[in-house]
Structures
1.
Amino acid sequence: MTDKPTHRRRFLNTLAGAALGAALPPSPGRAAAAEPPLARAIPSSGERIPVVGLGSWITFNVGNDRLARDACAAVMQAFFDAGGRVVDSSPMYGSSQAVIGYGLAKLGNPPALFAADKVWIAPGSRGPAQAEESRRLWNVERFDLLQVHNLLAWEEHLPMLFAMKSAGKLRYVGITTSEGRRHRDVEAIMRSHPIDFVQVTYNVVDRDVEARILPLARERGIAVIVNRPFRQGALIDDVRRHPLPAWAAEIGAANWAQLLLKFIVSHPAVTCVIPATTQASHVRENMGAMLGPMPDDALRRRIVSDVERL
Amino acid sequence: MSEWWTYRLSSFLLFSPRTYFHLHELYNAEIWPAQLVALAFGIVLATLAFRGGRRSGRTIAFILAGCWAFVGWAYHVQRYATINWAAVYFGGAFLAEALLLAALGVVREPLTVESTPPARRIGAWMMLFALIVQPAIGLLAGRPLTQAACFGIAPDPTVTGTLGMLLVARRPPWVLMIIPLLWCVISGAFEWAMRAPDALLMPLVGAIAAGAVAMSRATSPARQRR
């Protein structure tokens, strides 16, 4: 449990981070390339991370296929070139961890990396061995963030992760869920444990977390990572059959990917969104969402209503 | 997983269809010309099925056991497991079927190729389908021949051919059909999640085989005598 002043400090940190996005006027002529990418503070530390990260669900699970691994490394290269930091994976994602390790080695272990992984195993007594195996696959000295994947055996994993953090073997501790599952349990853990991160599904269509989890994250000073921003590609496949709305130019969104990502990261509780892709060109599109003005509340409502009408 | 009902089939799909079918392409290239050896074994199986007899049945079970062991190890454990952690268990099941075929079909109660005519005809057609049609069916689904699934090499046609051979045998042990029939369901589920055009093929193969065995048992001489 954390004390109230810490909550207040975390909350103020979150607001300060959010203000960076909110303070940007929606002027279409803004020179996006001249400004730094939007970053948000992790409330528990104040460390700033870019709001667009890189997921690896499905896209990086390419096995031992050398060409496909090189393509993933190219995606990572484009990601780091555009100022990205947070790369997220899980032992559940097949060969994704090994492929990330391959990419990092090929790129000379970019110092900007913020390594986020998960523990996903039961019983919890097997957590330390799995975390060490994951670290070996990434070939990093330590993870920045380890999360309990889908709350599997969280009662056992969380004490282990907090112990790793205390011992300096880990910087942040988190929990994850996806597609709206176990939100009551997520809320209970957010209230009762001093976690640094919570990872949830949030996009223009799946907005359940707006009601309770995102406000709670702000109140408790917990950073929020957003997964499935494009509903595993289905959402963007749906919307891109339609022309980009004229008002997208007001926030500097040059394509649907940027529009959908800007909707997510413009929520003040969101710290980072982690779209996954197999193409470097898509990474560059996604990273463009960190530039230019962000939608205000009125425009966010319009994005929701317009997308729902499509 | 207390909210298991909220999971969809696609929630368990860890890889893209492109990665999955490319894995087949790489596998085929790495083991070439094993496909030709497997085809030769398939032709031997079909010939033995037509010749009939107890000795043929024992040889059929022996060859099938070898095919299942090869697919279990070379495909599931060594290749498929690199993109799907569940493939280790699939590999274990295939190796278990190989042991069952060897123990029951070769040693304990050798298969006898002498089933009732309808089941035998269906079994023979299934074997031919597994050998000739199934490897080419990917072409109709828009996949290149380099990604073909061959009998004795890839799971689906191996299962189809095995079910066909079990149908031409007289009262084969039911236990030999459990793993092949389960695979028909699993394969169909994965391909359905990948939205493959031929996703229903293996469930259909399983349904035909199960129906033919049930029909064969219902009309077998042993039952008629009772």
2.
Amino acid sequence: MDKNTLFIDTFFKPELIVRYLPDILKGMVVTTEIAMLVVVTGISLGLVLAFVRSLRLPIVNVAIVVFVDVARALPPLVLVLIVYFGLPNVGILLPSYAVLWLVLSLLLAAFAEEIFWAGILSVRKGQWEAARSTGLTYSQALLHVILPQAVRLTVPPLTNRTIAITKNTALGTVIGVPEILNQATTAESFSFNATPLMMGAIAYLVLFVPVVVAGRYIETRFAWRRV
Amino acid sequence: MEAILRQFFDVDIMVQAAPLILRGLGMTLLVCAAVVPLGLAGGLVVALAGSARSRGVRFILALLTDVLRAVPPLVLLIFVHAGLPFAGLRLSPFASVCVAFFLNNSAYYGEIYRAGLDSVGAGQREAARSTGLTAWQTMAYVVIPQAVRNVLPDLVSNTVEVVKLTSLASVVALPEMLYSADMARSLTYNSSPIMFAALVYLTLLWPVVRLVSRLEHRVGE
């Protein structure tokens, strides 16, 4: 067997591609569903937290900062294992995909809160006052002066963080969520061949490369023009 | 309440598991000591090559960075550890972790350096060159120091991410901190060992996270 067919047989074996494509596609559906749920709940919760923080209630603010710091300091897999193995023993039974959704949503919420908060802080009071004194109405000031400045600071880091955290759906494989990586490693151990792993990697590329490219477009679109 | 305490904060179990987990911490630190410098160096190469004159080099680099940013690090790690042996390349868990995270982290550090290099105005380069510095001297003494300072919060924050990333090594059975803690958990049917590991991660990383917050606000002012 020459080198080329060996490579094909190891990573792109046609009959295995045909056999395992349905499994990988099922995994893609699960990954997409969980990722979208995480984005929706995580970003909404982050927005709510940032809004609550802007009310500046002393004890509540300390709690929010502690929550954000802890979420930033702990590896996601540690949290997944704590929730997945710990909660059943205190009487709370959650299916594994719910554990993954819950943990990733909380993580995204923490990072999103920090980013929204930075956006809120970035626009100074003087901007409001200046905008209003030139004769802009409240909504004009908000639309043309405040939001463009806040969004510039918020959107690029938020996209990056969202991509990074939704990629963590792959951690679901450790607790048996049938997402892409789980399907791929199962197929790999049945077929004793690396083709399913390659298919899994390609599945992630298909899902996430467009998101990464869109993220970079957003980043340049919203960047301050350099002088 | 008592059930929660027993399940997550059983002091006896924590004390019993502590030596194992702390040995795991040693391995975690060893992995960090290998992976952080590798990523920082790889990232610098990626960023510098990004301003190469050859269009081909820039294109391949951009493609590679996008691919690495799109594939979850755990997928990359399992591919290196479980996939490459079929092609005759069998790496130890430690080497697999180094290779996979070197690739992943180079892409991320590279993006950060890139933003840093872009933040240094062209006038700086021109001024440095016109005082007689060579292109390399300009990079080393004028551009890179300013670039690094401008993106310092991002560099530190990404390093926190890298330290957290090392916990994935538990999946390929490298006996780092999370692996050791999870082993103790499966022996005791109790989550206290993982809580203990979580507390160690917090002790290590919370000060750094606070520092990043501070740096971010200071740069913002």
3.
Amino acid sequence: LSDTGDDPDERRWAGWMEAAQAGDRAAYEALLGELASVARRFLLRRLGAVDFVEDVVQEVLLSVHRGRHTWDPRRPFRAWFFAIVRHRCIDQLRRRRAATPEGERVPVETLAQDGDADAMGRDPLADGVDAANLLARLAAPQRRVLELTVFQGLPAAEAGRRLGLSAVAVRVRRHRALARLRGWLEADVRAGVRGDRPGDGADGHGAALAGGELDAGDDGPRTGGSRAAAREDEREEPGP
Amino acid sequence: MSDRETTRRQIAAAVASLAPVRRFRPGRLALGWLVLGAGAATIGMVLVQSFRPGAFAELLRHPGFGAESLLGLAAVLLAGRAAIGAAVPGDDGRIPWTLLAVGALALWLAFLVGTLFLPSTPPSMAGKRAACFVEVLAWSVPLTAAGLLLQRRGFPLARRRAGMLAGLTAGLIPAWLMQFACMHDAEHGLTHHVAPVAAVVLVAALVGVGLLRSTRTRER
């Protein structure tokens, strides 16, 4: 029934989800395990190795669980899943300013660049993926506002003081930066739903949508389709 | 406990609590909402005051009024589908329901504005109701509530947008019906039948953000 085309990941996910909707636990476990890896990779590629990637992955899995009855086997699973990923990612970015307590502030420079990767829970296999992340694509003034308000958790007034802007201007800039990120994520998702591959899309950011696993030996055995996707991703990984 | 370990435990908990679900079908639900909602609003309006005499005959006698009504109906149907679809992640992907609804609404409004200059029916006060503005607001309340409750059965990610679409549909139903129930005049239609829809959209967006925060997975 599902519109899966020639995409093996889509076929596999759709099959598992259909079985899960009927109560098949084994299929559901396989699906969630694979989706966690795919979401993690998607987020790492787009946001870099920021400290809240795993939080978003967990929110995504919770949303998949709570919203599983809304997926229709006649519709692409990929579109449904990545709509959740995109929304949860933006939600998390929005929430962080208010939620980041003083003691947990981590400079984004530390997170987005080399630093102590393992201490931050960074996946060594994800090295290099943040070279083309979405934050880096933002205009410098917008990125700076996000760094201060979202990642460092500063109030708009304090961020404004450091940047020489009013609090209102900081909020407006932050809103625009988040809107731009949302737009890029949306474009990525649409490119992935169409089945575009890096190089075919506007900016080559559709790569993670090909699926693939980052954590071999960490989240259990790989399926044949994921191995293929991982190989594909390895070929397409941007160079240093 | 590491973040990855937490994720693994979360997956284990989700798998352990898995139960078969009843699928959320936006097309059917939207159709039911629109048909029952429009039916209930029609009955309510008739109980307050009968529809404008000869309103339905005008559809054939004045093609402009027929076209205007068809555009309005398209806007209502598409808005209804988009509203319930807003409770399904990625529903706008292949068929952009929201865009279609907004497009149809824009065409309807443009047509109504056009009839300010080129009336589609001869000017008349026939059928004028005492409080059509208030009636549109009043009938939209239960329709909005029903729409939001239906959306809660799904999984709306953008709650404000979902609420706005529910309000838009709920406001458009009585606004469109009022074009038959009340006097037909372009200016009156825009100011007394269509304008209240904006207020309904705003209120529904606010209510939607709160009401759609929690949803229920429908297990069999």
